[in-house]
Amino acid sequence: MAVAVVVFSIDKTRGNLLLKILESDALKAKHIKTVFDLERTVSKHAPSIIIFDSKYHFSKNYTIVGTLRSKLPKSAIMVLCEPYMEHIFTDMGVRSDMCMADPLDPELILAKVREVYFIKNKSYLRLTTFLSIAYNLFTGDTKNPYLSFAKKVLLIFALITSLTIGGTGGFILWSISDLPKVQLLEQYTPLESSQIFSSNGESLAEVFVERRRFVPSYKIPEHVKKAFIAVEDIRFYKHFGIDIQRIVKAFIENMRAGTIVQGGSTITQQLAKMLFLKPEKSLSRKVKEIAIAFQIEGRYTKDEILSLYLNQAYFGSRTYGIEAASSTYFGKKTEDLTVADAALLAAIPKAPSTYSPFKEPQRSLSRRNTVIRLMYENGLITENKYKEALSEPIPKHVEKTRYKAPYFVEYIKGVLEQKYGDSLYTSGLKIYTTIDMNMQKTAEKAVEDAMEAFAKRGVKGVQAALLTVEIKTGEIKAMVGGTDFWETQFNRATQAMRQPGSSFKPFVYLAAFRYGFKPGDTIEDREVTYFQKRGEPWTPHNYTRKYYGTVTLKSALARSLNVATVSLANKVGMERVVESARLVGIKSVIHQRLPSALGASEVNLLELVCAYCAFSDGNLHEPISYKQIVNRYGLGVEEITPVIKPVLDNSTLEKMHEVLGAVVTEGTAQSAKSLNRVVYGKTGTTDDYADAWFVGFDDKYAVGVWVGRDDHTSIGDGEAGSKAALPLWIDFMKNISFQ
Prior knowledge:
Blueprint: E1 5-8, H1 12-23, E2 29-32, H2 35-44, E3 49-53, H3 63-71, E4 76-81, H4 86-90, E5 99-101, H5 106-120, H6 145-175, E6 194-197, E7 203-207, E8 211-212, H7 222-232, H8 244-257, H9 267-276, H10 283-299, H11 302-312, E9 319-320, H12 322-330, H13 339-347, H14 361-377, H15 383-391, H16 406-420, E10 430-433, H17 437-456, E11 463-470, E12 476-480, H18 505-514, E13 522-525, E14 549-552, H19 553-558, H20 562-572, H21 574-583, H22 605-617, E15 619-620, E16 626-630, E17 636-639, E18 645-646, H23 650-665, E19 680-685, E20 691-697, E21 701-708, H24 721-735
Parallel strand pairs: 1-2, 1-3, 3-4, 4-5, 6-10, 8-9
Antiparallel strand pairs: 6-7, 10-16, 11-12, 11-21, 13-14, 15-18, 16-17, 19-20, 20-21
Helix pairs in contact: 7-13, 7-14, 9-10, 9-11, 13-14, 14-15, 17-24, 18-20, 18-21, 18-23
C-alpha cells in the first residue's frame, strides 16, 4: 500500500520518533533503515515526501539524495542535517527551506510536511449529481394540460424531497458507520513527556515528542476552567454536546462578514476532533464530530470532559496540555496559576503562533484582556479580580531551556534508549538518577576555573572532562564531558577514546602483585631495546631521560618510571597485564604489546575511573546512572540495586594502596598532599603533551580528570598530568570534602 511519507533513518529510535510525529497528524508513513530498502520501496510507489535523516549515516555517501531527486521529480525531499552540512544537499538541488537542523523539532517538521503534502495532494469535493426520472405516472385522463402539468410538478417535488431526505439520512448513516468507541477514553494514555531527576529529586530535564504532563481535574483551579469556558464555550454546562444557539449566532455573523469569523464548535466537539478524527475539513468529518460529541456527553461528566480537553489542547512551543503550558509560559504548576495566567493560556489554543506571548506580545496581551473581560461580563470573576488581572504583565520571552548536568542527561538518555526505546519520550516516566547536583555544580565550577587558569598562562582551546563515582555503590555522582555542552555535545567522559599514558601503569603493577611480586621487590630501570614479533625494535625512555638503575616497584610507580614499568610488564607478561585490566573493568581493546604498558591503547574516562574504584575496595564496579524509574501513575517500573563482585584479595589490595599512596606522598602527585587527607592516584601524560590525566580516590569517591584537545594536538610544552589535570582534581576534591 502506498504511503504519503517515507522516512529514511539508520537509527531506530529517531526513525520511530519521526513516525510518531507524522502519525500524530494522521499521515501515513513508513520507516526505512537501509539504502537498498529505500530504493526498492520508492521504485514501487513514489511517495509524496521522502525525509532523509543524515544523522548516524556514517558512510557519508549522500549521493542517494541526488539520485532520488532525478528519479522521483514529483517527490519532495526533506533532509535532517547539521547546519554545517546544508550546503552538501543544496548543491544536489535540495531547497534550503527543506533542510531541517537537529535536534528534531516536531512542530517545524509537521508544519513543513503539511505545507508540502497539501500542495501536492490538494483535492476538492467533487459532487456529480445525476437525476434520472423515468415515469409513467398516470393512466386515465390526460386531456387537461393544466392538471397534467400540476401532477407532474407535485410528483417531481415529492420525488426530489424523498431523494434529499433519503440521501441525507444515508450520508449521515454512512458517515457514522465507522465511529470509534468513546469508551476508549477510559484507557486514554496520551503521549506524555518523561522527567529526569537528580538523586535528591531536583528536576534535571524533560524528554518528549510532545511536551505534556497530565494533571487530574481536582488539581485544576476553578478560575482556570472558567477562563477556557468564557472564551471557548460559555454555555458548556448547559448544552448536550452541540450548542444550537451558538451555531445560529455564528452562522448569522459569518453571513454578515462574508467570511468565517466565528466558529460554532463546543469544547466537547473540539475534544472529539482532537482525540478521534483526522485534521481534514469535510462534511463527513463534521457529522462524525457531532455524533462523537453526543456519545461523550452521554457517557462522561462535564468536569471529566473539560479535564480531558485541558490535558489535550495544544499551546504552541511543542507544548501540549495545561500543566506543560503552565511550566513553559510561567514556570508554574497549574494549581498556582493566577486569573491573568489562566486567561493568557485560554487565549493561546485558537492560534498558538499568533497569540504566543514570546512571539507576538501585543496580540497576546490584547487577546488575554479579551478573555479577562469575557470572564467578568459573564459573572465568572469579581470586579476586583478583573482589575487585578488586567494589571498583570504577560511573561517575557525567555531563552530556550538549558537543562542541568547536560552531558550526564545525554548519557543517561542513551542508556535508557537501549532499554525503553521511543517509549522513553512518550510514556511519562519519572527517572531518578544518581547525580548529586551539589557535586555536579562543584565539578562544573572546577572545570570552569581550570579553563581560566589555562587562559592566564596562554593555553587556549583545550577541553576537559571530570567524572566522579561513589566507590561503595558504583553510582555516578558528577559528570562533565567538556567545557561547553551547548557548543559541542561530544562527551569526553564517556565517548572520547584516548591514550591514558602513565595512568594505565597501575594495571601493570596489579598484574605483578597478583602473581607474587611485592612493592619492595626491585626492578631494573636501565635503557633496553625490545625486539617485538611485529614492528620495529623499540627502546622506551623515561620522561626526564634519567635512569635510576635498580629501584623498588613502589618507587618505580611513584616516580612514574617508564623503563622500569616496561621491564616489569615484560617479566609478568602483557597477557597477564591485559587480564588484570579486564578483571577490574577495563573493556576497551588493550593490545598485548609492551607499549600498552605505558598507556598506548585507548580507553575512556568512565571505565578508567570505575577500574580505580576496584583499587579502592577490591570490587568490580559497573557504573550506575539511575536508581529508580516510576510510570505516570507512580508505580515502580525498575529499581537498581548495586551488584558487588569481589575481584581483588586483601593482600593485593594493600599492595595497590601502598604504591598508589606513594604517588601522592613521594611521587608525581605530591601537590595532592594539600588536601590533608589520605588519597591515592596516578598522573598520566601522553607523547607531545596531547593528553593529561589524573585518576585517584579517597575512602568515598573515585574521581578522574582528563585534559586535552579534540584534534589530539599538544596542550602545550610541559603540560603534563601533574600540571594540567591534577590541579583541577585537587580543586574539586577540596570542595567536596565536607559533603
